[in-house]
Amino acid sequence: MQTPSATIPHLIAAGFHALSDPLRISVLEVLRQRELCVCDLCDALGVNQSKLSFHLKTLKEAGLVNSRQEGRWIYYSLSLPQFSVLEEYLAGFSRNCIISSARSCCD
Q1: Which has the higher per-residue pLDDT, 97 or 91?
Q2: In the prediction, which pLDDT does 1 show?
Q3: H/E segment holding residue 28
Q4: Which domains are delineated in the chain?
Q5: pTM
Q6: CA distance 78 to 95
Q7: Whole-angstrom Cα distance, residue 80 to residue 27?
Q8: Are 38 and 67 in contact (CB under 8 A)?
């Protein structure tokens, strides 16, 4: 599924915002191994559910994690398409940017 280009800057900004917190990075590292429910994430990271829920909400809004409900438990997993969007954005700098000296505007 192709994402409309108008939403790309929003997705990129939300993704990098979500990646700006050490606890959210830790959540992603744990989820890199496998899908987990909130209680298992709390145990793995040593944080309470209230604190973790705030960070999971940020990661979910940024499109970096998926959630699914099974009974009364919510399971989280990585959402790889958003990681691809961020990876492509960063790769564009090394592929397409030519750094040249600035010219004076007053010459």
Answers
A1: 91
A2: 43
A3: helix 22-31
A4: 5-86 (1.10.10.10)
A5: 0.80
A6: 27
A7: 14
A8: no
| 81-86 CB contacts, 8 Å cutoff, 24+ apart | 82/11, 82/15, 85/3, 85/8, 85/11, 85/12, 85/15, 86/12, 86/15, 86/16, 86/19
Q: What is the DSSP letter of 76?
A: E
Average pLDDT, the chain: 87
Rounded-to-integer distance, Cα 39 and Cα 50, Å: 11
Non-local CB neighbours of 51 within 8 Å, separated by 6+ positions:
23
Neighbours of 58 (CB within 10 A): 20
pLDDT tens for 28-46 read: 999 999 999 999 999 999 9
User: Within 10 A of 39 (CB to CB), how many other CB atoms are there?
Assistant: 12
pLDDT exceeds 90 at position 104: no
User: Which amino acid is present at 6?
Assistant: A
Q: Pairing state of beta strands 73-78 and 36-37? A: antiparallel
